């Protein structure tokens, strides 16, 4: 009998949102950490370190807000890695155990929006980091035509990486973690001579007072980073086998990867924002203030960092769209979402104001994503991490039935609780383009994250306190329980 050759990074990934067989779950916890660190050391994440400076905060206030938000968000989000560790599929599909096999579409849409927005942001900032250095080094034109060509090139490279899938992303993550860290360390030296801790914008705090602005920075620059991973983590922990690795190692690797992958680039962004006095245009100021010797490293970051990060995000988007429209293959879904992301990039360059667009996006999507994450974690605790992997795939097979069918495929308590938390969050958001009406009752302070999390959690607890969570009676260590649910074709 012929022996199958081992998979390589040259092979296109065959899995979509189906359950990964244990034989294919060859990932390690350190692979998860490597992907999270390596793929995020790019200007698409660095730019979030600029936000505190653009809000009018001083250096130390900006740093404390980012660290506080990142650690708080990581504490909430990192345990989600355990869900896909147990189910062997991505997080939005796994959430069907709590939202219903049709209700899990909420997670797929949230994941699609999260990855779409961040992919567009990554391509946008990466394009500026490629065009700017080339203009200074070689005298190439830096007008709209150059940006259109570079954006298109970066998008094509990123979609190729995303199409090849998990193993190539894993290999790239390890190399990017080393290479991009070296480039950022060089960047600290490049800009150190001009560094100052004084605020870089005139006119005071963006929201008129220190604490409201500090809390805005905590959410927009700090908390939003971990929230961006709420559906993405499972794309990689589903390749780790619970038979070989204990849960605590997976959570520790996930938390470490998130903290390192977010704080390293964001602190670099804050440092360089103050060194270059970047109040309104971060990437442009970064390029213009760079010493000549740092232009090549900056160009490399703009190219490889962007392709790595955008590839991760497009890969996740492809899985989410595949989960929404099962007839689409993962490859076709990935190509389609890359086109949409590229269109958003052009809008970001030609139409929108950078600071307002980024801030509004991350705050609004955080208000939508946080309740979903809270309900998924509560559901995970209620079922003690035990799932019927076959029943989770009912919608993908366009079938009916199974223990997660609930009411027509929807868990009404979970959907109602998510809606309640999301509405609370949206009504209490404070941005320069939208002010929620509940700010009048919160002293003008944006506590949208807290209200969204507490509201959804309390509502879900009250609505389900007398309803048992479906739990298969199989070994909880197994990702694919032996007992399958009966499902009939729709």
From TrEMBL:
It is a multi-pass membrane protein. The keyword Thylakoid does not apply. Coiled coil: none annotated. Residues 470-490 are annotated as: Disordered. Belongs to the purine-cytosine permease (2.A.39) family. Keywords: Membrane, Transmembrane, Transmembrane helix, Transport. It comes from Amycolatopsis thermalba. This is Cytosine permease. Gene3D superfamilies: Hydantoin permease. PANTHER family: PURINE-CYTOSINE PERMEASE FCY2-RELATED. The keyword Magnesium does not apply. It is found in: Membrane. The chain crosses the membrane at residues 32-51, 57-85, 105-124, 144-168, 175-193, 213-234, 250-274, 294-319, 331-352, 358-381, 402-427, 439-463. It holds the Pfam family Transp_cyt_pur.
């Amino acid at each position: 009998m012929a022996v199958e050759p081992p998979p390589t990074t040259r092979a296109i990934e065959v899995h979509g949102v189906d359950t990964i067989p244990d034989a294919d779950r060859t990932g390690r916890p350190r692979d998860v950490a490597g992907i999270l660190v390596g793929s995020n050391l790019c200007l698409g994440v660095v730019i979030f370190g600029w936000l505190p400076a653009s809000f009018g905060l001083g250096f130390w206030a900006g740093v404390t807000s980012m660290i506080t938000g990142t650690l708080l968000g990581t504490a909430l989000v990192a345990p989600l890695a355990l869900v896909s560790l147990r189910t062997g599929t991505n997080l939005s599909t796994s959430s069907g155990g709590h939202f219903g096999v049709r209700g899990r579409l909420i997670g797929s849409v949230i994941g699609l929006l999260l990855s779409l927005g961040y992919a567009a942001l990554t391509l946008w900032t990466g394009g500026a980091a490629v065009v700017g250095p080339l203009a200074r080094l070689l005298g190439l034109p830096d007008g709209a035509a150059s940006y259109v060509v570079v954006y298109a090139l970066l998008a094509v490279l990123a979609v190729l990486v995303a199409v090849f899938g998990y193993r190539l992303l894993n290999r790239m993550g390890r190399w990017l973690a080393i290479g991009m860290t070296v480039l950022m360390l060089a960047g600290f030296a490049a800009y150190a001579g001009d560094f100052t801790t004084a605020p870089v914008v005139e006119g005071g705090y963006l929201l008129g007072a220190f604490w409201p602005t500090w809390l805005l920075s905590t959410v927009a620059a700090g908390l939003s980073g971990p929230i961006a991973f709420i559906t993405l983590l499972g794309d990689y922990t589903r390749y780790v086998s619970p038979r070989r690795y204990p849960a605590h190692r997976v959570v520790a690797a996930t938390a470490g990867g998130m903290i390192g992958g977010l704080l390293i680039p964001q602190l670099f962004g804050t440092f360089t924002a103050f060194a270059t006095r970047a109040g309104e245009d971060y990437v442009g100021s970064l390029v213009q203030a760079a010493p000549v010797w740092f232009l090549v490293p900056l160009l490399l970051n703009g190219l490889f960092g962007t392709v790595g990060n955008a590839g991760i995000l497009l890969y996740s988007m492809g899985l989410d769209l595949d989960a929404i429209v099962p007839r689409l293959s993962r490859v076709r879904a990935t190509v389609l979402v890359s086109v949409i992301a590229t269109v958003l990039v052009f809008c970001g360059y030609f139409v929108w104001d950078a600071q307002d667009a980024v801030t509004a996006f991350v705050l609004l999507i955080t208000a939508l994503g946080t309740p979903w994450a809270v309900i998924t974690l509560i559901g995970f605790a209620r079922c003690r991490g035990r799932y019927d992997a076959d029943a989770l795939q009912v919608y993908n097979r366009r079938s009916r039935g199974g223990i997660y069918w609930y009411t027509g495929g929807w868990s009404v308590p979970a959907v109602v609780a998510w809606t309640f938390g999301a509405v609370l969050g949206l009504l209490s958001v404070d941005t320069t383009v939208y002010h929620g009406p509940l700010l009048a009752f919160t002293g003008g302070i944006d506590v949208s994250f807290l209200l969204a999390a507490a509201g959804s959690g309390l509502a879900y607890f009250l609505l389900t306190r007398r309803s048992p969570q479906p739990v298969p009676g199989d070994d909880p260590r197994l990702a694919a329980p032996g007992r399958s649910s009966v499902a009939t074709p729709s």
